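user: can you give me the structure for this one chain? tokens are fine.
assistant: on it. calling the predictor now.
[tool input]
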Amino acid sequence: MLIRDVINRRDKENCELGCPQSIRSVEEIYVPSRLREANGPRDLLEALLNSMTSYVELYNQGWQLRNISNLNVRLNHVFGEAHSLNKDESHPYGLKHCRGILIDSGDSEAVKWEEAREPGTHRSVTDTLPFISQDMLDAMSWPSNTTHTALDDLESFTWVLVWECLHKGKSLNLLSNWDLKSLDGFKDDYPQHLASFKGDFLSTCKDGGRKWRGSFLSPFKDLLARWAGIRWEAIEQMADLEDIRHDSDSVTQVLKDIGVLCSETGHKYVRAGLEHLPKLHESWAPRNPT
């Protein structure tokens, strides 16, 4: 579900359909909760997947919401059923409950992605460093014509999940030493250093190993590994398409192919999350030793 910052309870029907609201009344406003208020790992992931689904649906309709962070991926405690953006369709992934909300703050984060595919036409607008993709952080560190694509936004959802989970674990005093080091890594203000940290973290996600033992993130280990693999595969395909685009006169077709790649990658992220959802506990439990 995509909404503005605050919504009126009387606009329930439109909000369930994913329609952005223009608020004319301050009565009975609803401010979505932060993700770390989730009841447990399953609640957290389901909320994230609801928001990711909204992102993918918007992308399929031509819009790229570029500012993915923990500020606009929120927990929904009010509205029950999940709907497609098209009210005549059932939810595309079969989700029955709307646990998460994707907020568009209305500050021009969303663009028509087909109109913003020339190199350098827009850079990352995710204004909170912990959630910027590794590639966009690298682009901030060195002169580059790197374009902010949907692949960067989908990676940002990964960082939202990790960030919120680590902070929840910190509040429960359940973080392992590796968790604490990871949390410190997110706090680095230098884009180049943060990009290096994220590269190492993604490699750890993909390879597994001892670092996961006792980690508060361990319930998400398999999912993070799948997302890391999906990311690397998509980046390789994107690089091939970009090479073709630079050497081809049929730019329009290549842009369509890029759109298909991004959309399919979004579906892979969501599907992986849905398959992982039943493995998670409903409440926050002591650290998983595996």
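assistant: here you go. The two ends are 35 Å apart (CA to CA). Residues 45 and 277 are 7 Å apart (CA to CA).
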